[in-house]
């Protein structure tokens, strides 16, 4: 192959490497604000026992939930997606079973939920979307001998739902204003399809009754059209920023005289006990989900490494081709590419600039 042919091939390879590098840059820096980027990961086993190694590539949040009684619990929260489903894994440390447990009987459930301001406008409008999981256990002779989980799909209801509003008033009296999150519940983790509940998962308690850890693992589709819940409606190739908040609560119960023992609960974001975050979407944290590229961040890093390696090899090849003039021409072509403002988000524009650089470089090469 002539020096001109080698140079043409080298410039083409270099430009391809630049495309890969820029794509990786888009994946890595497109969302540089305070929004949490939800990483693409391989699906972990959703068996109710959160192994942090299974979630090592997920987005990690170390949060605290503080109840009105002053008790505070650390929670390791893992969030990710596999391009079709949103994935949630949570470990709440040293929490023990729900204290409203009746001795040698079933406990009241604990719940973990994630709520979304899907259109990211700081307002909750019907129906919005939320997902969650309840953990139940049976205790006999001070030992846990049975556990089950129930999944929930939450949605924001229109005003006027009297019984729903009464329930929230009695169960979470510290919340100010209308609380219109309602839910559809399945009959158990294995029967969600019959109840049109797309959320599925498991949870459990691990360790002693006094100081054991509680786990939640569940997932739900990124694009769903369920009757009661709006869903996220994210399809492959789309990217979106939205608000979200996290909830941990321990369900109360009614006494024989119909008096309600309230739930204990807290929401994140917020420091200390922040009961009103749940109804104030303007206080939600922000997340971004991008389904336009690889769902595996480690793969993106590998692509970037390959791109850099190819670039180095091309430079070496050009030098071996005794082409100081060629390098000068290549520099001239690449200068054209980067002279303008290159918007990494526009692959079409980037391709046009690369083509112009390639054409300029090749045509200016000395003939051998």
Which architecture of the largest domain would the CATH scheme give at its second level?
Sandwich
Helix content: 25-40%
Strand content: 25-35%
Could you tell me the radius of gyration in angstroms?
27 Å
Residue-averaged pLDDT, rounded?
A: 76
Stated plainly, the CATH topology of the largest domain is called: Immunoglobulin-like
Secondary structural class:
alpha+beta
* Bulk shape: globular
Quaternary structure: single chain
- Main beta sheet, described? 8 strands, mixed
Q: H/E order of the elements?
A: HEEEEEEEEHEEEEEEEEHHH
The CATH class of the largest domain is identified as Mainly Beta
Number of E-state strands: 16
N-to-C CA distance:
11 Å
Give the uncertain stretches in residue-range form.
21-32, 187-196, 337-348
- In DSSP terms, counting alpha (H) and pi (I) runs of 4 or more, how many helices? 5
């Amino acid at each position: 192959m002539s020096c001109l042919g080698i140079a043409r091939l080298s410039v083409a390879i270099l430009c391809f490497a630049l495309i890969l590098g820029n794509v990786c840059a888009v994946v890595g820096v497109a969302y540089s604000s305070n929004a949490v980027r939800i990483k693409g990961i391989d699906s972990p086993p959703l068996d109710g026992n959160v192994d942090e190694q299974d979630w090592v590539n997920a987005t990690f949040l170390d949060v605290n939930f503080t109840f009105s009684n002053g008790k505070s619990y650390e929670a390791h929260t893992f969030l990710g997606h596999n391009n079709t489903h949103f994935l949630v894994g949570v470990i709440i440390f040293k929490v023990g079973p729900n204290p409203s447990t009746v001795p040698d009987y079933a406990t009241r459930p604990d719940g973990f939920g994630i709520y979304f301001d899907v259109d990211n406008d700081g307002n909750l409008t019907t129906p919005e979307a939320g997902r969650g999981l309840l953990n139940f256990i049976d205790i006999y002779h001070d030992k846990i001998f049975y556990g089950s989980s129930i999944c929930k799909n939450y949605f924001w209801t229109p005003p006027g739902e009297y019984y729903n509003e009464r329930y929230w008033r009695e169960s979470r009296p510290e919340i100010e204003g209308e609380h219109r999150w309602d839910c559809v519940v399945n009959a158990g983790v294995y029967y969600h399809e019959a109840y049109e509940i797309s959320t599925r998962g498991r949870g459990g308690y691990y360790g002693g009754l006094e100081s054991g850890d509680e786990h939640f693992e569940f997932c739900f589709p990124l694009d769903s059209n369920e009757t009661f819940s709006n869903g996220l409606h994210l399809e492959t190739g789309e990217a979106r920023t939205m608000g979200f908040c996290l909830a941990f609560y321990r369900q109360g119960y009614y006494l024989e005289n119909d008096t309600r023992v309230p739930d204990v609960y807290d929401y994140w974001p917020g420091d200390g006990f922040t009961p009103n975050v749940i109804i104030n979407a303007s206080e939600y944290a922000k997340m971004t989900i991008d389904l336009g590229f690889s769902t595996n961040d480690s793969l993106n890093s590998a692509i970037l490494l390959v791109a850099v390696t190819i670039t180095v090899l091309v430079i070496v090849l050009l030098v071996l081709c005794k082409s100081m003039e060629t390098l000068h021409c290549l520099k001239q072509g690449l200068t054209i590419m980067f002279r303008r403002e290159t918007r990494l988000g526009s692959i079409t524009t980037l391709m046009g600039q690369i083509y112009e650089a390639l054409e300029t470089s090749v045509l200016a090469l000395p003939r051998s």
